[in-house]
């Protein structure tokens, strides 16, 4: 068995469906016999809550990735010709299966990643929302659209959207269910097939995705998972795909962008962030403290859009620090598959070491630890206290580098102009937040350089508004997810134009000089009347 059931009974894991193993073989390994994998080709999967491995998965090579793309290409035309309405029907059923299997999904996400159950439920709702939204919108977005022709009446022009072909997807460990499929949904609905590489830390959640897609009726070979290292499998995906969707670090994103650009292949990426939050003097601090706690500690801070730095007007600085510290200290940490804990574990030893090093560096530089600042091994292997830093000096790494953990710093500012300047003083621009009276917030929000600006919320308001695109400024990303842009980026726009009557260069019997005068007069008249814009 790939999935070793070493989970203690106290965790009450939901049972896996009978067809799970069957779908692993057909979707994940392009027909390979996974149980024949040599020990050297296996990777044991750690569970942050457990003392024993959760199980093992095979690690494939570049040759298997190539096979996956070959199969995906043979299936792509058939999948496209099925029609968007029939594709949408499959994803409406997938939506229902996600909700009906939510307990199993949350169990697996928690076991692989270590997050609290509320964070695992966020992934369920995000995928369900994306599936329902794009299943509803795709037929409209992909419908041929009439456009203004080159010459009124005589030119009939329509815009069509063709699929790119085979989309490659490389997703991270922090949201294995959500990021394992949410970006692929619009790609598949647009008529593409997908070859996906989940992070090596969290493969089982992606394999569960493959199972649910199979149950929804997705044909074999349309969505294929390949398991292996980023260096081998990720690179091979970049070498073979017709479009690449990547979520992860800025450094890796730059490497992949360079790789696909050599083949003139499209690229979309959500990358790193050092997300700021501004608290104005007129903010409702009751609302702010509760929302900021969620914005900083959701998924134990292991979230690209998580808040890591807070700028507060001096009038409310001390009160906010006191109340936020109390809120952080009240959060319950724990590692069970229930709803009693607000903050879960970090994902692994490496991430724990990263967080510890950031805090140690800040302390050494002279920062003050207001609350937290230490690991909690008695709770589990990788637990770390929610931490607030004050008086962070300019040479501390935490001031500008992404921590990706439950660590924030707070700085006082003289006014909102200083707050906006500090918020924008970064190479990143993914997410941001403003807590203020509505009139104040809407006045400064357009000045913040980020792909999403949330007012009186940390990140959920912008993320959940899936009809509107989100993404990163500066080094936080390329292209967008969500909204029409989140689907149409996976297509090639094609203009089909028919000329009727006589050509734009003029009627047969009219001299070119005479026609140039007629056309010039028509263009001038069109500008005056508003017919041509």
Describe the structure in your own words.
With 533 residues, this protein is α/β, with parallel strands linked by helices. Helices cover 42% and strands 17% of the residues. The chain is built from 18 helices and 18 strands. It has a 7-stranded mixed sheet with strand order 12-13-14-11-10-15-16, sandwiched between helices. The longest helix is centred in the first third of the chain and has 25 residues. The chain is globular. The N and C termini lie far apart (65 Å). The N terminus is likely disordered.
Main beta sheet strand tally, sense and closure: 7 strands, mixed
Strand segment count:
18
Please work out how many helical segments DSSP would assign: 18
Spatial separation of the terminal alpha carbons? 65 Å
Strand content: 15-25%
Secondary structure: elements and pairs:
Blueprint (H helix, E strand, L loop, with lengths): L19 H9 L13 E4 L9 E4 L3 H20 L2 H17 L1 H12 L3 H25 L3 E3 L7 E9 L2 E5 L7 H4 L2 H6 L3 E5 L5 H14 L6 E3 L4 H11 L2 E5 L2 H12 L4 E5 L4 E5 L5 H13 L9 E7 H17 L18 H17 L2 E4 L15 E4 L16 E7 L2 H9 L6 E5 L2 H7 L7 E4 L4 H5 L12 E2 L4 H6 L2 E9 L12 H18 L4
Parallel strand pairs: 5-6, 5-8, 6-7, 8-9, 10-11, 10-15, 11-14, 13-14, 15-16
Antiparallel strand pairs: 1-2, 3-4, 4-18, 9-17, 12-13
């Amino acid at each position: 068995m790939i999935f070793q059931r070493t989970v203690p009974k106290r965790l009450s894991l939901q049972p896996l469906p009978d067809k799970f193993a069957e779908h692993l073989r057909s979707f994940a390994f392009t027909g390979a016999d996974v149980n024949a994998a040599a020990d050297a080709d296996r990777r044991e999967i750690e569970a942050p809550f457990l003392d024993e491995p959760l199980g093992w998965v095979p690690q494939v090579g570049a040759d298997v990735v190539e096979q996956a793309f070959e199969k995906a290409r043979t299936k792509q035309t058939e999948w496209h010709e099925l029609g968007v309405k029939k594709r949408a029907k499959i994803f409406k059923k997938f939506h229902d299966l996600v909700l009906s299997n939510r307990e199993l999904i949350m169990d697996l996400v928690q076991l692989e990643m270590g997050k609290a159950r509320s964070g695992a439920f966020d992934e369920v709702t995000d995928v369900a929302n994306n599936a329902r939204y794009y299943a509803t919108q795709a037929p409209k977005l992909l419908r041929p659209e009439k456009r203004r022709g080159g010459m009124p009446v005589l030119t009939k022009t329509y815009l069509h959207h063709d699929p790119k072909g085979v989309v490659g997807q490389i997703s991270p460990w922090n949201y294995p269910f959500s990021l394992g499929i949410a970006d692929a949904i619009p790609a598949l609905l647009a008529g593409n097939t997908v070859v996906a590489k989940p992070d090596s830390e969290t493969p089982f959640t992606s394999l569960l995705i493959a199972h649910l897609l199979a149950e929804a009726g997705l044909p074999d070979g349309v969505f294929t998972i390949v398991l292996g290292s980023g260096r081998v499998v990720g690179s091979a995906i970049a070498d073979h795909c017709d479009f690449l969707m990547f979520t992860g670090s800025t450094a890796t994103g730059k490497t992949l962008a360079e790789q696909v650009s050599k083949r003139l292949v499209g690229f979309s990426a959500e990358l790193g962030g050092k997300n700021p939050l501004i608290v104005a003097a007129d903010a409702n601090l009751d609302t702010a403290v509760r929302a900021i706690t969620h914005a900083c500690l959701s998924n134990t801070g292991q979230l690209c859009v998580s808040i890591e730095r807070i700028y507060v007007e001096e009038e409310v600085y001390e009160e906010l620090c006191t109340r936020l510290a109390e809120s952080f200290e009240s959060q319950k940490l724990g590692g069970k598959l229930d709803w009693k804990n607000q903050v879960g574990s970090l994902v692994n030893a490496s991430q724990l070491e990263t967080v510890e090093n950031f805090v140690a560096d800040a302390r050494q530089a002279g920062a003050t630890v207001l609350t937290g600042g230490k690991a909690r091994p008695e709770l589990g292997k990788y637990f770390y206290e929610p931490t607030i830093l004050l008086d962070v000096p300019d040479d501390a790494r935490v001031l500008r580098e992404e921590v990706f953990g439950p660590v924030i710093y707070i700085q006082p500012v003289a006014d909102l102009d200083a707050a906006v300047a500090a918020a924008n003083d970064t190479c990143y621009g993914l997410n941001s937040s403003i807590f203020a009276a509505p009139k104040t917030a809407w006045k400064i929000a357009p000045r913040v350089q980020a792909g999403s600006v949330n007012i009186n919320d940390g990140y959920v308001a912008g993320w959940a508004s899936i009809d509107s695109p989100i993404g990163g400024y500066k080094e936080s990303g390329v292209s967008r997810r969500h909204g029409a842009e989140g689907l149409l980026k996976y297509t090639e726009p094609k203009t089909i134009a028919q000329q009727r009557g006589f050509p734009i260069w003029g009627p047969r019997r009219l001299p070119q000089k005479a026609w140039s005068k007629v056309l010039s007069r028509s263009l001038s008249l069109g500008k005056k009347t508003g017919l041509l814009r």
